[in-house]
């Protein structure tokens, strides 16, 4: 029987099947409509949440760290663009990125890492979504990695700090860590100022990572700030070169130089040896990174004798033209002996400084109350912070006690029994050169001269300056610090280093001074720690470095020298009776 005949015999068969199909379709349609209505009307948040989880991202723009420049605009620290190589292990596994090991070998070669180490980082946790492979790679390396097209390997922008001055100003400028956060020096002290805040924006991204819609601003960013230091890079380079030459020549353990502008208190140079290259982070040693000019202390020795004379003149216990008897060249104080290298007889104040007489300066110290001497030291900045506001600065140490023996008072006068930093020593001489005005020390370039404090009478300061001229002239203890055309008011110092139970065989050689005497402009302290060999006196070791730094710096600042005739007249000017 044909199919058509069967249909004619069972006419109800077709409508029943049709009703079933139509009913099923209607039920499916109603279910879809109900489900869509439920999702979109009754519970739409869940779907939106799922969508947002896949597409919404928060992006931030990169803010470069601020520049650090010297007072003339020369770069001391600048950020350069680099890239970070990172991996998405889950994505790498999903794309079977490990099938072509030749690409991984090429990646390992350019990153200078073992290929097994790289692969292990990515394979170790296949569910992880982020792992660094290498930080701060150069743009050229980054371009090469992009061309490898390894699944799950990505690049992101970051910056790296570069220091054009290298080791010359390494301890002062400091360094940042791999995350561009300052950890030493200026970079650390002014980290907040140098670091900007990136702006953050919520965006919608497509599956391939492209931004298809920009939404809300999550956080408004702030630009980073630049810093202009008081440092003069020319003088800094000169100071470091001469300091390094001196420490190498005398095989010293370390050395420091500080150059201060007498008129403003600005630091024009601060150098230390040994130093390090801040652009190479391999094998960094902590002792090379320390800014010894403001962290390390020492007993200043005879460099403080001019301030004992100043204290005595201020106290009125001695007159400028008075003679001090020092025969027979030694004296017993409290059962102990203080002696000079020769018997100089009756000495003027000027001659006491020129010959660096311990006997003469001890008598001056004993002629005044101990608090007068200590007060002068403290008023000149000893035992106090300088105002430079750099991390790690030491205030030095001056004991504050009620009773002092006569011998202790004597040792205070020639620089023992208390400690100072090279920065403090330079500041003391800058105060002498400014006519007794103490300025706060600044490592930042000042827009206008600061307000200073008169801590020493101008007449006394000028008188002591004149007395010091003979130190670098013939017959003085520092003829190697003499500079033709620039008269120096300076003083040598040679102090033995303290050890447990007394003093050892190591010395600290010092020279500090101001120039030119007739128009003071710069104050410099040079400290050479533990020189080896036969020469260890301040005049022999630190004096020549002082002369070269001071002479070169004054010429760089266009300070006009005086003629030989004027220099002779200045050197022979009456200071006090001989």
From TrEMBL:
Q: What InterPro entries does the entry give?
A: Beta-lactam/transpept, Beta-lactam/transpept-like, FtsI_transpept, PBP_dimer, PBP_dimer_sf, PCN-bd_Tpept
Query: Catalyzes what?
Result: Preferential cleavage: (Ac)2-L-Lys-D-Ala-|-D-Ala. Also transpeptidation of peptidyl-alanyl moieties that are N-acyl substituents of D-alanine
Membrane topology qualifier: Single-pass membrane protein
According to UniProt, the name of this protein is Peptidoglycan D,D-transpeptidase FtsI
Q: In which pathway does it act?
A: Cell wall biogenesis; peptidoglycan biosynthesis
Gene3D superfamilies per UniProt: 1.10.150.770, 3.30.450.330, DD-peptidase/beta-lactamase superfamily, Penicillin-binding protein 2a (Domain 2)
Q: Which residues form the active site?
A: 302 (acyl-ester intermediate)
What does UniProt give as the signal peptide span? Answer: none
Q: What does this chain do?
A: Catalyzes cross-linking of the peptidoglycan cell wall at the division septum.
Residue limits of the Penicillin-binding protein dimerisation domain? 62-215
Top-level class of the enzyme under EC nomenclature? hydrolase
Keyword RNA-binding in the entry? The reply is: no
- What family does this belong to? Belongs to the transpeptidase family. FtsI subfamily.
One GO CC term, this protein: plasma membrane
Tell where it localizes.
Cell inner membrane; Membrane
Q: Which UniProt keywords apply?
A: Carboxypeptidase, Cell cycle, Cell division, Cell inner membrane, Cell membrane, Cell shape, Cell wall biogenesis/degradation, Hydrolase, Membrane, Peptidoglycan synthesis, Protease, Septation, Transmembrane, Transmembrane helix
Q: What is its EC number?
A: 3.4.16.4
Which GO terms fall under molecular function for this chain's record?
penicillin binding; peptidoglycan glycosyltransferase activity; serine-type D-Ala-D-Ala carboxypeptidase activity
- Membrane-traversing stretches: 16-38
Q: Keyword rRNA processing: yes or no?
A: no
Residues forming the Penicillin-binding protein transpeptidase domain are 255-550
- Gene Ontology biological-process annotations: cell wall organization; division septum assembly; FtsZ-dependent cytokinesis; peptidoglycan biosynthetic process; proteolysis; regulation of cell shape
Grouped into one coarse class, the protein's main location is membrane
């Amino acid at each position: 029987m044909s199919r058509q005949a069967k249909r004619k015999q069972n006419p109800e068969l077709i409508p029943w099947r049709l009703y079933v199909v139509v009913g099923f379709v209607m039920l499916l349609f109603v279910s879809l409509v109900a489900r869509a209505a439920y999702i979109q009307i009754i519970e739409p948040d869940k779907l939106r949440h799922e969508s947002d989880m896949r597409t919404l991202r928060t992006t931030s723009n990169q803010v470069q760290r601020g520049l650090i420049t010297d007072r003339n605009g020369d770069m001391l620290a600048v950020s350069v663009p680099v890239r970070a190589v990172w991996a998405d292990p889950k994505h790498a596994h999903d794309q079977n990125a490990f099938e072509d090991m030749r690409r991984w070998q090429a990646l390992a070669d350019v990153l200078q890492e073992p290929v097994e180490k790289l692969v292990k980082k990515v394979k170790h946790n296949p569910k992880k979504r982020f792992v660094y492979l290498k930080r701060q790679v150069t743009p050229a390396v980054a371009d090469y990695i992009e061309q490898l097209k390894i699944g799950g390997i990505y690049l992101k922008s970051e910056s790296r700090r570069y220091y054009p001055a290298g080791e010359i100003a390494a301890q002062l400028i400091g360094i940042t860590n791999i995350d561009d956060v300052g950890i030493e020096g200026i970079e650390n002290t002014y980290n907040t100022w140098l670091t900007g805040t990136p702006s953050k924006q919520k965006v919608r991204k497509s599956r391939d990572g492209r931004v298809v819609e920009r939404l809300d601003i999550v956080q408004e960013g702030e630009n980073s700030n630049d810093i202009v230091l008081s440092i003069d890079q020319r003088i800094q380079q000169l100071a470091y070169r001469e300091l390094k030459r001196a420490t190498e020549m005398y095989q010293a353990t370390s050395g420091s130089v500080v150059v201060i502008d007498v008129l403003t208190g600005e630091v024009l140079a601060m150098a230390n040896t040994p130093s390090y290259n801040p652009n190479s982070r391999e094998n960094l040693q902590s002792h090379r990174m320390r800014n010894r000019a403001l962290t390390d202390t020492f007993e200043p020795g005879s460099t403080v004798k001019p301030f004992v004379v100043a204290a005595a003149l201020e106290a009125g216990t001695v007159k400028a033209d008075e003679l001090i008897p020092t025969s027979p060249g030694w004296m017993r104080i409290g059962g102990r002996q203080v002696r000079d290298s020769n018997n100089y007889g009756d000495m003027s104040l000027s001659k006491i400084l020129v010959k660096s007489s311990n006997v003469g300066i001890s008598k001056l110290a004993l002629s005044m109350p101990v608090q007068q001497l200590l007060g002068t030291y403290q008023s000149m900045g000893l035992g106090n912070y300088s105002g430079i506001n750099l991390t790690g600065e030491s205030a030095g140490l001056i004991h504050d006690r009620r009773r002092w023996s006569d011998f202790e008072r004597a040792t205070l006068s020639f620089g023992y029994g208390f400690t100072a930093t090279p920065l403090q020593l330079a500041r003391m001489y800058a105060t002498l050169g400014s006519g007794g005005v103490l300025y706060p020390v600044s490592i930042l370039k000042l827009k206008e001269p600061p307000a200073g404090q008169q801590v020493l009478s101008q007449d006394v300061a000028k008188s002591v300056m004149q007395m010091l001229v003979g130190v670098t002239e013939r017959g003085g203890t520092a003829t190697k610090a003499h500079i033709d055309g620039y008269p120096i008011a300076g003083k040598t110092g040679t102090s033995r280093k303290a050890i447990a139970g007394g003093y050892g065989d190591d010395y600290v050689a010092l020279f500090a001074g101001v120039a030119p005497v007739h128009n003071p402009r710069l104050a410099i302290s040079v400290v050479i720690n533990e020189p080896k060999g036969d020469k260890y006196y301040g005049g022999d070791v630190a004096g020549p470095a002082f002369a070269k730094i001071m002479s070169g710096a004054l010429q760089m600042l266009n300070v006009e020298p005086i003629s030989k005739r004027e220099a002779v007249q200045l050197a022979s000017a009456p200071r006090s009776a001989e």
